[in-house]
Specification:
Radius of gyration of chain A: 24 Å
Distance between the termini of chain B: 5 Å
Distance between the termini of chain A: 30 Å
Largest sheet of chain B: none
Helix content of chain A: 25-40%
Strand content of chain B: under 5%
Number of strands of chain B: 1
Structural class of chain B: mainly alpha
CATH class of the largest domain in chain A: Mainly Alpha
Helix content of chain B: 55-70%
Largest interface: A-B, 29 and 36 residues
Strand content of chain A: 15-25%
Oligomer: heterodimer
Shape of chain A: globular
Number of helices of chain B: 5
CATH architecture of the largest domain in chain A: Alpha/alpha barrel
Chain lengths: 608, 159
């Protein structure tokens, strides 16, 4: 899949920080932990992905919580996921031997399991290797004191209402400091050791025996394999598509069906910059992509759960939509700053996201596009939901003339963004089409069509630049915006449309750096710049494929695949010069765009 | 009086459970009595919680009849005397009942003498149940005082 996959490397850190691409993600459908190539768990939120972190050295190498496990002597590393799973396998090679570490967040069956459990199993492969582990969690981003005590012979870290036990088997005699535990052990070929981090929040700890933990690890592998096996893509890039599907599954919040945009907060879009956002929420702008991807991969239960989560969450703000909602469906995501150093000095470190309060007109198009796809692929839309969708279309007909903050959530003055207006066209036309099918009430259908035509006239009159040969970023602007590629993907006009084809060409020439595509040119109200946006790069692949430039699309797609990290994951952005990852990780939208592009290239992407 | 004990046992357990659950939600303690009781019978989390609530309310009824017996012996009942019983009940719970007796009879709970062995182990409560959080003793006692006051008041009203 990736040119870097399977190769041995010597992990490096800069000022205590591992490169973002050095991380692999493990998860259990509720929370995600990031494991670096040097064996450190530098990110783990508890009890859920959007909770406060107990391991957060990712955002503060000096004071952040972490769990390390590595050989005591120099080593090289090679990593992979156990085939078709989200279970990570890291092999350390030293001068004296080789060990393999298997990392997994266990899925909970069989037996009485801890509320959350992260298992690190170490197997001796050859020779003899001495390993050292150290666990120093800091609950609640360090705002809660953490203290280690012994419980039934087990070291337990306690915080306010929370506890993490370190159950070990053949992993040395633990020593305790006031807020950390550590031990050293030696493993011969054929031997094995285990370290389990068992979490309890609001209940007594469960301290399971090793036999049950190993059984749950096997069951976890089996469950992931079964899930991956039933994904319905059989094209030539199945490995990359299934890895992306597994990455997305890590971001699906199993209790609600929502999909987090990423597993982290505040990883910077530029090292040392201020573009450090919290992505542990679900963005409505991703909804059409999510439904399309889930259904194209044969994930009908996940697609249904997501649509019902979306309709449940948006009921709180109906008929207006927020840009994002919490994974539990809540509407509040107040933004605040944590007093942490930030990844390689990138401050502020934000939790919560102020974009929730912005007006972004494109989300209405995403919602009605999602409803359109749901109605065609998953099931029926009940009358209550249909009535709400019709009221949403009425709202779009009323508000499309307003300027907004656009899909990229700029913090400069609102503008008449082209992509926002195009998505208003999609919203109104999809609502009218659903009414024609008898799914939505048809009372206002002719009004929706009339307003759709008015928006389209606005776009064609004000957002097309003959000089640029493209639809520009906003009415009257000369800047380009890669989000306009979505017009091809969502069917704003037929793929043969000359203006669309010309826009794809212009973006493919003026926003690219090698295989990477920048989001836009022009101001966004923030200081500094950013890397290239990986989802845009895959959107360009899909736009090229859909407008008939398949060989060029295939070449670009295959080049992008070589820029995944060694375990096949992508972040939000990439430094086009060095290929280093930037932004939150792993990024759902990038993996959604990858799957969508692969499906389009395979010729399976005909939209309903 | 018997119906007063039944009503008091139910209402008192309801309030006791609510106080402990609220304290847990506020991150003041990790004690979860229904979970502790239910896991004595099953290792299935969902069934343990459901069974635990049934058991907890049954135990609440038993204690209410114990209170009734004491009221009959003393020849007096009321919310204040009930609250005093609740205080004693709470102290007994955190020093002996949950701390000492429960680990002995609970098949899945560890003690200071056991390491993670052949069966799943629940974290032991520790002295004054402080393993589940430093504020657990006062919260548990306050919840039991509320339980006792309600049992006393309703038995008094029914007599």
């Amino acid at each position: 899949m990736s040119g870097r996959q399977g190769s041995s490397l010597v992990p490096q850190r800069i000022d205590g920080y591992a490169p973002i691409e050095a991380y692999a993600a493990i998860g259990d459908g509720r929370t995600v932990a990031l494991v670096s190539a040097d064996g450190a768990i530098d990110w783990w939120c508890l009890p859920d992905i959007d909770g406060a972190a107990a391991c957060w050295a990712l955002l503060d190498a000096e004071g952040g919580g972490r769990m390390t496990l590595q050989p005591t002597t120099e080593y090289t590393v090679s990593r992979r996921y156990v085939a078709n799973t989200n279970v990570l396998e890291t092999t350390y090679t030293t001068a004296t031997g080789q060990v393999r570490v298997t990392d997994a967040l266990l899925l909970g069956e069989p037996g009485l399991a801890p509320l959350r459990e992260l298992y690190r199993r170490v197997d001796g492969v050859s020779g003899r290797v001495t390993m050292r582990w150290q666990f120093a969690p800091r609950f609640d981003f360090g705002r809660t004191p953490t203290r280690f005590v012994w419980r039934a012979g087990v070291p337990v870290a306690q915080g306010r209402g929370q506890a993490l036990a370190v159950c070990t088997w053949a992993a040395g005699d633990a020593e305790l400091g006031s807020n950390e535990a550590w031990a050293q052990f030696t493993l011969d070929a054929g031997g094995s050791a285990g370290i389990l981090l068992a979490y309890a929040g609001g209940e007594p700890l469960v301290l399971p025996p090793r036999g049950e933990v190993d059984a749950r690890l096997r069951e976890t592998c089996r469950t992931w394999r079964e899930w991956a096996k039933s994904r319905s893509y059989d094209g030539r890039w199945r490995e990359a598509v299934v890895r992306s599907a597994l990455a997305l599954k890590l971001l699906v919040h199993a209790p609600s069906g929502a999909l987090a945009a990423a597993a982290t907060t505040a990883l910077p879009e530029m090292i040392g910059g201020e573009r450090n956002w919290d992505y542990r929420y679900c963005w409505v702008r991703d909804s059409a992509f999510i439904l399309d991807t889930l259904t194209s991969l044969g994930c009908a239960p996940e697609a249904e759960a997501f649509f019902w989560w979306l309709m449940h969450a948006s009921a709180l703000t109906h008929p207006r939509l927020q840009v994002l909602y919490r994974l539990d469906g809540g509407a509040e995501a107040p933004e605040s700053e944590l007093a942490l150093d930030g990844y390689r000095g990138s401050r502020p470190v934000r939790v919560g996201n102020a974009a929730q309060g912005q007006l972004q007109l494109d989300v209405y198009g995403d919602l009605l596009e999602a409803a359109w796809r749901y109605a065609h692929t998953c099931g029926t839309i009940d009358p209550e939901i249909a009535r709400r969708l019709a009221q949403t279309a009425d709202l779009v007909a009323d508000v499309w003339r307003q300027p907004d903050s656009g899909i990229w959530e700029v913090r400069s003055e609102p503008q008449h963004f082209t992509q926002s207006k195009m998505m208003c066209v999609i919203a109104l036309e999809r609502a009218a089409a659903l009414a024609d099918l008898g799914i939505l009430p048809s009372r206002h259908a002719s009004h929706w069509r009339a307003e759709a035509k008015a928006v389209r006239d606005f776009v064609e009159r004000n957002c097309w630049s003959p000089d640029a040969g493209a639809y520009v970023r906003a009415a009257g602007s000369t800047d380009l915006d890669a989000s306009v590629l979505l017009a091809v993907l969502f069917g704003y006009a037929p793929p043969a449309d000359e203006r669309l084809r010309s826009t794809v060409d212009a973006i493919g020439e003026r926003l690219v750096h090698g295989p990477f595509v920048a989001r836009y040119t022009g101001d966004d109200g923030l200081a500094g710049s950013e890397g290239a946006f990986l989802a845009c790069s895959f959107w360009l692949v899909e736009a090229l494929a859909r407008t008939g430039r398949r060989p060029r699309a295939t070449a670009l797609f295959e080049e992008l695949l070589t820029h995944a990290n060694d375990v096949g994951l992508y972040s939000e952005e990439v430094d086009p010069g060095s290929g280093a990852f930037l932004g939150n990780f792993p990024q759902g939208l990038t993996h959604l765009a990858l799957i969508s592009a692969a499906t389009a290239l395979a010729g399976e992407g005909s939209r309903p | 009086m018997v119906w007063g004990a039944v009503a008091g046992g139910f209402a008192g357990t309801l309030v006791l459970t609510t106080v402990l659950r609220a304290a847990s939600e506020l991150s003041l303690t990790r004690i979860d009595l229904p979970f502790l009781l239910g896991t004595a019978l099953t290792n299935d989390r969902k069934r343990a919680k459901a069974l635990g609530y049934v058991l907890h309310f049954a135990v609440g009824q038993l204690f209410a009849f114990g209170y009734l017996a004491l009221f009959v012996v003393i020849g007096h009942s009321g919310w204040l005397l009930g609250a005093v019983f609740g205080l004693a009940h709470g102290l007994f719970s955190i020093t002996a009942l949950v701390n000492v007796l429960l680990p002995v009879v609970h098949p899945r709970m560890g003690s200071t003498y056991t390491a993670a062995g052949s069966a799943p182990l629940l974290e032991p409560p520790g002295f004054l149940v402080r393993n589940y959080g430093a504020r657990t003793p006062e919260i548990t006692i306050a919840a039991h005082i509320a339980y006792g006051a309600l049992v006393g008041a309703l038995i008094s009203l029914a007599s």
